[in-house]
Amino acid sequence: MGITVDPASAVPPYEQVRTGIRDAVEAGSLAAGAKLPTVRGLAEELGLAVNTVARAYRELESDGVIETRGRSGSFVAATGSPSHQAAQRAAREYADRVRALGVDPAEALDLARAALAHP
Fold first, then answer.
1. How far apart (Å, rounded) are the C-alpha atoms in residues 117 and 119?
2. SMART domains from the entry (predicted)?
3. Does domain 13-76 have CATH number 1.10.760.10?
Protein backbone atom coordinates (compact mmCIF):
# COMPACT_ATOMS: atom_id res chain seq x y z
CA MET A 1 0.00 0.00 0.00
CA GLY A 2 3.01 2.28 0.37
CA ILE A 3 2.31 3.59 3.87
CA THR A 4 5.25 4.07 6.18
CA VAL A 5 5.18 4.84 9.86
CA ASP A 6 8.07 6.69 11.48
CA PRO A 7 8.31 5.60 15.11
CA ALA A 8 10.50 8.63 15.90
CA SER A 9 7.88 11.09 14.61
CA ALA A 10 5.94 13.33 16.97
CA VAL A 11 2.84 12.43 14.93
CA PRO A 12 1.03 9.46 16.49
CA PRO A 13 1.19 6.23 14.44
CA TYR A 14 -2.61 6.08 13.93
CA GLU A 15 -2.47 9.59 12.44
CA GLN A 16 0.39 8.61 10.13
CA VAL A 17 -1.70 5.66 8.89
CA ARG A 18 -4.81 7.85 8.53
CA THR A 19 -3.03 10.56 6.54
CA GLY A 20 -1.15 7.99 4.46
CA ILE A 21 -4.38 6.37 3.33
CA ARG A 22 -6.16 9.71 2.86
CA ASP A 23 -3.27 11.05 0.77
CA ALA A 24 -3.23 7.88 -1.37
CA VAL A 25 -6.96 8.30 -2.02
CA GLU A 26 -6.57 11.97 -2.92
CA ALA A 27 -3.60 11.20 -5.20
CA GLY A 28 -5.62 8.51 -6.96
CA SER A 29 -3.27 5.65 -6.08
CA LEU A 30 -6.15 4.16 -4.07
CA ALA A 31 -9.20 4.37 -6.31
CA ALA A 32 -12.82 4.52 -5.21
CA GLY A 33 -14.00 1.01 -4.43
CA ALA A 34 -10.50 -0.36 -3.80
CA LYS A 35 -10.37 -2.96 -1.03
CA LEU A 36 -8.09 -2.08 1.87
CA PRO A 37 -6.04 -4.60 3.82
CA THR A 38 -7.68 -5.97 6.94
CA VAL A 39 -6.94 -4.09 10.13
CA ARG A 40 -4.97 -7.06 11.39
CA GLY A 41 -3.11 -7.47 8.10
CA LEU A 42 -2.08 -3.81 7.87
CA ALA A 43 -1.09 -3.75 11.54
CA GLU A 44 1.17 -6.76 10.95
CA GLU A 45 2.62 -5.25 7.77
CA LEU A 46 3.45 -1.96 9.54
CA GLY A 47 4.50 -3.50 12.85
CA LEU A 48 1.73 -1.71 14.75
CA ALA A 49 -0.87 -2.73 17.29
CA VAL A 50 -4.22 -3.77 15.82
CA ASN A 51 -5.97 -1.04 17.83
CA THR A 52 -3.73 1.61 16.24
CA VAL A 53 -4.81 0.66 12.71
CA ALA A 54 -8.42 0.18 13.85
CA ARG A 55 -8.46 3.78 15.14
CA ALA A 56 -7.11 5.07 11.82
CA TYR A 57 -9.80 3.12 9.93
CA ARG A 58 -12.56 4.41 12.26
CA GLU A 59 -11.47 8.01 11.71
CA LEU A 60 -11.21 7.51 7.94
CA GLU A 61 -14.72 6.06 7.96
CA SER A 62 -15.97 8.99 10.03
CA ASP A 63 -14.36 11.37 7.49
CA GLY A 64 -16.10 9.58 4.61
CA VAL A 65 -12.85 8.41 3.03
CA ILE A 66 -13.50 4.70 3.53
CA GLU A 67 -16.51 2.51 4.19
CA THR A 68 -16.67 -0.76 6.07
CA ARG A 69 -18.95 -3.45 4.69
CA GLY A 70 -19.15 -5.84 7.61
CA ARG A 71 -17.30 -9.10 6.99
CA SER A 72 -16.50 -8.04 3.42
CA GLY A 73 -13.90 -5.57 4.72
CA SER A 74 -13.05 -1.93 4.25
CA PHE A 75 -13.05 -0.12 0.92
CA VAL A 76 -12.27 3.35 -0.40
CA ALA A 77 -15.60 5.18 -0.40
CA ALA A 78 -17.38 5.20 -3.73
CA THR A 79 -17.31 8.99 -3.82
CA GLY A 80 -13.54 9.09 -3.31
CA SER A 81 -11.62 11.66 -1.34
CA PRO A 82 -13.17 14.39 0.82
CA SER A 83 -11.81 17.08 -1.50
CA HIS A 84 -13.39 15.30 -4.47
CA GLN A 85 -16.68 15.09 -2.56
CA ALA A 86 -16.53 18.84 -1.85
CA ALA A 87 -15.81 19.53 -5.51
CA GLN A 88 -18.80 17.40 -6.53
CA ARG A 89 -21.05 19.37 -4.16
CA ALA A 90 -19.74 22.68 -5.50
CA ALA A 91 -20.31 21.52 -9.09
CA ARG A 92 -23.87 20.47 -8.24
CA GLU A 93 -24.57 23.84 -6.59
CA TYR A 94 -23.13 25.66 -9.61
CA ALA A 95 -25.22 23.59 -12.02
CA ASP A 96 -28.38 24.23 -10.00
CA ARG A 97 -27.67 27.97 -9.86
CA VAL A 98 -26.93 28.47 -13.59
CA ARG A 99 -30.00 26.41 -14.47
CA ALA A 100 -32.11 28.65 -12.23
CA LEU A 101 -30.62 31.70 -13.97
CA GLY A 102 -31.48 30.26 -17.37
CA VAL A 103 -27.86 30.16 -18.54
CA ASP A 104 -27.19 27.82 -21.48
CA PRO A 105 -25.20 24.72 -20.31
CA ALA A 106 -22.45 25.26 -22.92
CA GLU A 107 -22.05 28.87 -21.77
CA ALA A 108 -22.00 27.74 -18.12
CA LEU A 109 -19.15 25.33 -18.93
CA ASP A 110 -17.25 28.11 -20.70
CA LEU A 111 -17.71 30.33 -17.63
CA ALA A 112 -16.43 27.58 -15.32
CA ARG A 113 -13.39 26.91 -17.56
CA ALA A 114 -12.57 30.62 -17.64
CA ALA A 115 -12.87 30.87 -13.87
CA LEU A 116 -10.56 27.86 -13.40
CA ALA A 117 -8.01 29.27 -15.85
CA HIS A 118 -7.75 32.61 -14.05
CA PRO A 119 -7.45 32.35 -10.27
1. 6
2. HTH_GNTR (SM00345)
3. no
